[in-house]
Design a protein that fits this description.
This protein is α+β, with helices and mostly antiparallel strands. 44% of the residues lie in helices and 18% in strands. The protein has helices spanning 7-20, 22-32, 73-90, and strands spanning 41-46, 50-55, 59-64. The protein has a 3-stranded antiparallel β-sheet. Strand 2 (50-55) and strand 3 form a beta hairpin. Helix 1 packs across helix 2 and helix 2 (22-32) crosses helix 3. The chain is globular, with a radius of gyration of 12 Å. The model has no long low-confidence stretch (mean pLDDT 94).
């Protein structure tokens, strides 16, 4: 796993996702991570290729970005794209604040 992000940046991204977007993470895991029955999802890692979640207290699930990220500013857009794609696959409406 390669990463263009500093350890501090990864921690900040994880904290933001877990504090503000835990429900979105679960949607991504259910829709794109192959775990439709997951009940919890915490962001556990971020690198250039994927975002990783720890689900239901232990299993790790990586969801690829779809492109290699080269800078931190790309993460938000990439997460929003994953969220929207997962909503589409699950037949859920996309919330407007994304």
């Amino acid at each position: 796993m390669s990463t263009p992000f500093t350890a501090d940046a990864v921690e900040a991204i994880k904290r933001h996702m877990n504090d503000d977007h835990a429900a979105d993470s679960l949607i991504i895991v259910r829709g794109l991570g192959g775990r439709p029955g997951a009940t919890t999802a915490l962001t556990s890692d971020v690198d250039a290729e994927a975002i990783e979640f720890t689900i239901d207290g232990g299993e790790r699930v990586r969801v690829p970005w779809g492109e290699t990220l080269t800078e931190r500013a790309q993460v938000r857009k990439a997460v929003v794209m994953l969220y929207r794609e997962a909503c589409g696959r699950l037949g859920l409406p996309v919330r407007g604040e994304h």
